[in-house]
């Protein structure tokens, strides 16, 4: 038996809005800078994916694109939709909405992949003045997006989706 | 006195679904079976095959692999005769050295600390329940476990390793260290261990609050 999450809706909104704000710098600022032979080249999340498409193999690029571009965006949209539908006491597709929540909770951690790539590259490429890789400000903002949306998902209580039905049936929900 | 490690869940339980609050009477479950909520389809209770012993074996193996994975070099990179060796901890250290302490903490937490805590606390709870000893902090450890699971990102890190491999493949030669094999093993074994571990069953055996352990 689990207790209801306290202030679920407002806490989730708070984390979600914070994540949306951090989403802009996360995509505009570079996540890393490759300095080789004195020249610096910066990469944002998106340009990193494009580089993989052009120089790596496309299945991997597709996975990274889904994990670091699509997932954060869809996750924020999904959470906003869940919150709004709960606040409007929607009756529609309760099962699908519960499933949507389950997917959001499960899939969010995969967005961290880009941060791990930056960390690994920074750890490996420290070869004197030949080449170094430095993490950029975008990496912090991007991590903030991932962590904040994970907190938002944690604080959302899926039981809110089902609440109206129980009340209208006259069945008292006991926690 | 019934057998020490019952192969079916010992008694029927009344469970409120944690996703929609529907109350369900759960019958005794055969090994390998799971009960789902009839309202929202959420898994309410599982009875993993192999019982406590299998989870203890798997988490024990995971602990050994975790130590191996962190003790040896992970990847070696060679550019023009110079080589750079790193281990898993090296990823967070590099971020710290670059002045990104916050990121270093997150990476350290998700790749080293959370897995270590998850594995040790799972072993602690499992051994405590199996030996039927009221070890201190069993309930705290058990309540941590489900919170921790989300922050263990070994599989995500592995995908990161693949991407880093492809990105550096053009400019340098990469060598795989022993630790990478241990790491892949760790991911597989932890997945199996998570599948063999059902906190809900352990809660039933420890008892939710204050009380003594239930006699079998």
What does this structure look like?
The complex is a heterodimer of chains A (175) and B (216). By secondary structure, chain A is α+β, with helices and mostly antiparallel strands. Chain A has helices at 8-28, 45-55, 58-87, 94-107, 113-124, 137-155, 159-168, and strands at residues 32-36, 39-43, 126-127, 131-135. Chain A contains 7 helices and 4 strands. Chain A has a 4-stranded antiparallel beta sheet with strand order 2-1-4-3. The radius of gyration of chain A is 20 Å and the shape is elongated. Chain B has 216 residues and is α+β, with helices and mostly antiparallel strands. Chain B is elongated and about 65 Å long. Helix content of chain B is 53%, strand content 14%. The longest helix of chain B is centred in the middle third of the chain and has 31 residues, at 101-131. Chain B has helices at 51-71, 88-97, 101-131, 138-148, 154-169, 178-195, 199-206; strands at residues 13-16, 23-26, 33-36, 43-47, 75-79, 82-86, 173-176. The chains are: A alpha+beta (175), B alpha+beta (216). At the A-B interface, helix 2, helix 3, helix 4, helix 5 and strand 3 of A face strand 5, strand 6, helix 2, helix 3 and helix 5 of B.
């Amino acid at each position: 038996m689990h207790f209801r999450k306290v202030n679920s809706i407002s806490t989730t909104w708070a984390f979600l809005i914070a994540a949306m704000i951090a989403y802009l710098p996360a995509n505009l600022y570079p996540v890393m800078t490759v300095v080789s032979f004195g020249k610096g080249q910066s990469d944002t999340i998106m340009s990193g994916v494009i580089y993989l498409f052009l120089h790596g193999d496309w299945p991997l690029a597709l996975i990274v694109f889904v994990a670091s571009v699509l997932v954060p965006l869809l996750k924020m949209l999904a959470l906003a939709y869940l919150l709004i539908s709960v606040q409007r006491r929607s009756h529609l597709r309760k099962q699908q909405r519960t499933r949507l929540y389950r997917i959001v909770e499960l899939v969010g951690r995969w967005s961290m992949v880009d941060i791990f790539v930056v960390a690994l590259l920074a750890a490996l490429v420290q070869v004197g003045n030949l080449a170094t890789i430095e993490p950029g400000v975008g990496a912090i903002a991007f991590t903030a997006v991932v962590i904040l949306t994970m907190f938002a998902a944690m604080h959302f209580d899926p039981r809110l989706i089902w609440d109206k039905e129980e009340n209208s049936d006259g069945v008292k929900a006991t926690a | 006195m019934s057998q020490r490690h019952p192969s079916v869940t010992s008694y029927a339980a009344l469970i409120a679904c944690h996703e929609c609050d529907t109350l369900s009477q759960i019958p005794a479950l055969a090994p390998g079976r799971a009960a789902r909520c009839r309202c929202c389809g959420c898994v309410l209770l599982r009875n993993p095959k192999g019982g406590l012993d299998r989870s203890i074996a798997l988490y024990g193996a995971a602990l050994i692999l975790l130590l191996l994975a962190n003790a040896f070099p992970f990847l070696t990179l060679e550019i023009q005769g110079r080589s750079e060796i790193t281990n898993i901890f090296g990823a967070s250290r590099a971020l710290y050295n670059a002045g990104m302490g916050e990121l270093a903490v997150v990476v350290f937490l998700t790749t080293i600390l959370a897995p270590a805590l998850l594995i040790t606390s799972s072993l602690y709870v499992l051994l405590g329940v199996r030996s039927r000893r009221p070890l201190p902090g069993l309930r705290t450890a058990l309540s941590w476990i489900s919170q921790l699971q989300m922050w263990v990102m070994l599989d995500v890190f592995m995908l990161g390793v693949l991407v880093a491999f492809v990105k550096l493949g053009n400019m340098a030669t990469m060598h795989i260290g022993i630790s990478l094999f241990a790491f892949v093993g760790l991911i597989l074994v932890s997945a199996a261990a998570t599948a063999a571990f059902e906190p809900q069953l352990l809660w039933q055996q420890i008892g939710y609050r204050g009380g003594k352990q239930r006699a079998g």
